[in-house]
Structure formats: structure tokens, C-alpha cells
Amino acid sequence: MADYQPVPDQIRGDILVVGGGISGMTTAIEAAEVGKHSILVEIKPSIGGRVISTNQYFPKLCPPTCGIEINLKRIRLNPFIRIITLAEVLQVSGSPGNYEVQIKLNPRYVNEKCTACGDCATVCEIERDNDLNYGLDKTKAIYLPHLMAYPMRYVIDPQFAKDERMKKCVEACQYKAIELDMQPRTITAKVGAIVWATGWKPYDATKIDNLGFGKYKNIITNVMMERISSQTGPTGGKIVRPSDGKEVKTIGFVQCAGSRDENHLPYCSAVCCLASMKQATYVRTQYPEADIHLFYIDVRSPGRLEDFYVKMQADQKFYFHRGKVAKITETANGNLMLEAENTLTGEVSKVEVDMAVLAVGMVPNTVDAKPPLETTLDPYGFIAGDSDKGVIGAGTAMLPCDVAVSVQQATGAALKAINIAGRR
Ligand SMILES: Cc1cc2nc3c(=O)[nH]c(=O)nc-3n(C[C@H](O)[C@H](O)[C@H](O)COP(=O)(O)OP(=O)(O)OC[C@H]3O[C@@H](n4cnc5c(N)ncnc54)[C@H](O)[C@@H]3O)c2cc1C
């Protein structure tokens, strides 16, 4: 049951899953496939989470479309899953086995008649920052969230819904799918268990003064690098530097940008070393002769992921520098000077690059929006709770991790939720 049908004011289910990234999708699907009614609530206009914005997955380097498409197929085939997008949990009452949840549905301003033809966007005169591409380009005010959007339906940025210019889009829609007067509403869901899978956001790189993000144009973050490398990204997949579109002859990856640092994120985000090495393969594919520099405290590639690290070490023009980058400055031609002290030899190395990528860590979204029921969070905001008392965490809402671990985690959460929902 997709979100193509209007949602009634009162709904029932066995399990409520909050967050429609790979973790939340996995929990909802696993529970539904054993016959439990699962309600998946996603705050954005489409499910898929941050995986959608990656160019390729490590370690296999396949596009995220593979994994997401398999899960979307399982969702489409399963009558026990109800997806509700643009929705947020306001309030929860009750106890394990018997919860009542107030869910706010925000207006999409586009109804289920939308065929995603795009005629509305063609005539739309208003532009907005593209959040999928971390503000590196624009979309129209009426837009399709991404090419794999589920539901495959346009949405209007709420700040422009009342703008007179949007009426042109209404006129252009031959299916009468645009309703500019849609209002928010609140529905009630009765469920037996609640799984919280609200995921992560990148650490705000502007807080790391010494690394120059926001000051120098050719310093980007790792999440932006995923988009710049993607065919659906702002440059159509061509890796060029932001200031002047110049091809990249030298690039620097700055590991632990803010991570493992008491002033920023004291913990390791577990995926950044692998993510940077993966991004180095994007560079190598486009620029066989490029010099790639990676500055690290120690490379973390647990288990079989070590194979990927070993493979990367065989690249003769991939230079690993032991030492945390202390300072980045801009040179006259827009290049960047990276300075780091080698922690083994004590020598200070200076490397000039065309472009630098800051490997920022993962911050749980629960830091900003704590679940509205009894939940224990660890000192960094990740869910650490005793699932018997309240919310069950899944995926990166519990710990920073890759997709494989998220999926294992989320599958375990489904089992716990089935157990708790059975106490009704
Ligand atoms: C630069 C980088 C590259 C990476 N590359 C890889 C890789 O190649 N391979 C790999 O295995 N892993 C990779 N990862 C890790 C991967 O992104 C995560 O493992 C994955 O996103 C975890 O999925 P999730 O569902 O837990 O969280 P998310 O992807 O963050 O999904 C959470 C969902 O919850 C929604 N949400 C948030 N708050 C609310 C709310 N209040 N109510 C309702 N919904 C809400 C969000 O909109 C989102 O859809 C990378 C990470 C980084 C930083």
C-alpha cells in the first residue's frame, strides 16, 4: 500500500517505523514479510534516505539504485506496508504493545493524479536550493525529489506554495494534480511497537575554522563529493573544482575533519576512511594521472573492508600521509595548501592541491529531534535505549555505520518490534 492513496484519520498497524532510509525500509519490509502490518513514516517527500545521494557503494562500487530498487520492489509487492511521506511524529502515548501516535501530515500540494511528466516544472519560474545536491545547484519550486523517488510524484517547496507565480504550474498540469490550498492535518495511529530509524546528517564543516570550509570555494565535504561525482549531480558527474570548473590534477582528502576531536565530534564515524578511498576511485576513473593525497590519523577499514584499503595502496599515485591536517590556506591561483604534522616522524608536510575534500562525520538526527517517548540517548545523541521500555533504534540512529551494518541492525530491530507488538 503505497502513499498513492489518501491516508485516513485513524490507522492501525503492528509496527510504526519512523525514518524511511535504508534502515527504516529494511525494518518495515522484514516485519511486513512475516505478515506484520508496518507503517513507515518519512519526513521528506520520498523514502530512500542518504543512500540515494551516494554515487557508488563501497566495497563493491555499485550504484545505490541496485539496493534501493530491490527494496522498492519488495515494498510494491507487499500489502502489509503503508508508506506515509512528508510526515512527522508529534506525540506518543501508551506503552510497549499498545501505543497511540499523533502524526502530522505536511502538504505536498500535489495529489495522487501526478504522473511525474514534469510539465509543471518546465513552466515554473521560481528556483530553490537543491537539498539533494547540498545546495550546489537549484531545482524549480515544484520538483521531483530524485529520479528514484518513491512515491514518484512532484512536490512543492512549502515556502512557495502561496506564491502567485505557482498558478502557472497549476494551469500547465493536464491531470489537475496540483492543489495549492492543501493543508496540514494530524492523524492517529495505533501500533504495538515503534522503531526509530531517523538516520544521520553530516557534521557542519563551517564549525571547523582551521579547515576553511565556506571560506575557500575549492574545499568541499565528502557528501558533496558524492553528488559532484554522480551523473545525477550538479556537474553531470564530471569532477571539476567549484570555483572555476577546472579539471582536477591533484586532490587532497582530509580525514577526521572534526571527528575524533573533543572540540567537535569525539567519536569515529566508521565509514569516512572507506568513503574517501571510494571517492579516490571516482577521481582515478576520470583522471588516470591525478595525484591523490589522503591525510589520516589511522586508517580504519574493519574486517573484509581491509581488502579495499590494500587495493588502493597499490595505486602508485595515491599518497597516504599519516597526520591530521591542522590548517588549509588558499594560494594565489585558487589552489589549497594542506599542512599536517606526521605523527611518526614529527615532520610537517605541506601539499598543494587543486581541490580538498573534508571527510566529515555522521551526526544522529536524534540530536535535533529526540523521539517523543522514553528513550535513552548516549552522550553523542545516538539511541542507546533499552528497547523493552520504549523506542527501538535501527541503523545510524543507533551508531555511525555503513549500509551493510545498518541493514543487519534494522533486521534485528524488526525482530524486537515483532516481539513487543505481540504483547497486545
Ligand atoms: C560520505 C559518505 C559516503 C558513504 N558511502 C557509503 C558507501 O559507499 N557504502 C556504505 O555501505 N555506506 C556508506 N555510507 C554510510 C551510509 O550513508 C549509511 O550507512 C546509511 O545512510 C544509513 O541509512 P539510515 O537509514 O540509517 O539513515 P539515513 O540514510 O540518514 O535515513 C534516515 C531517514 O530518516 C528520515 N528522517 C529523519 N528524521 C525524521 C523524522 N523526524 N521523522 C521521519 N523521518 C525522518 C530521513 O529523511 C531519512 O530518509 C556513507 C556515508 C558517508 C558520510
List keywords for this structure.
424 residues, alpha/beta, FAD/NAD(P)-binding domain, 2 domains, 5-stranded parallel beta sheet, 23 strands, globular, binds flavin-adenine dinucleotide
Layout of helices and strands, plus pairs?
Elements (H helix, E strand, L loop, with lengths): L9 E3 L2 E4 L3 H11 L5 E4 L23 H13 L3 E4 L2 E9 L2 E8 L13 H5 L3 E3 L8 E3 L1 E2 L11 E2 L10 H6 L12 E7 L1 E4 L3 E3 L16 E3 H8 L20 E8 L14 H15 L4 E6 L9 H8 L4 E5 L2 E6 L5 E6 L6 E6 L1 E6 L1 E3 L27 E2 L9 H19 L3
Parallel strand pairs: 1-11, 2-3, 2-12, 3-4, 12-23, 14-21, 15-16, 15-21, 16-17
Antiparallel strand pairs: 5-6, 6-11, 7-8, 9-10, 13-22, 18-19, 19-20
Helix pairs in contact: 1-2, 1-8, 5-6
The chain binds flavin-adenine dinucleotide.
Structure description:
By secondary structure, this protein is an alpha/beta fold. It has two domains: 10-106 and 184-200 and 363-421, FAD/NAD(P)-binding domain (3-Layer(bba) Sandwich), CATH 3.50.50; 204-360, FAD/NAD(P)-binding domain, CATH 3.50.50.60. 47% of the residues are buried. The two termini are 24 Å apart. Helix 5 (222-229) packs parallel to helix 6 (272-286). Helix 6 links the parallel strand 15 and strand 16. Strands 4-3-2-12-23 form a five-stranded parallel β-sheet, with helices on one face. The chain has eight helices and 23 strands. Helix content is 20%, strand content 25%. It has helices at residues 22-32, 65-77, 119-123, 167-172, 222-229, 272-286, 306-313, 403-421; strands at residues 10-12, 15-18, 38-41, 81-84, 87-95, 98-105, 127-129, 138-140, 142-143, 155-156, 185-191, 193-196, 200-202, 219-221, 250-257, 291-296, 318-322, 325-330, 336-341, 348-353, 355-360, 362-364, 392-393. It binds flavin-adenine dinucleotide. The site of flavin-adenine dinucleotide has 38 residues, from helix 1, helix 5, helix 6 and helix 8.
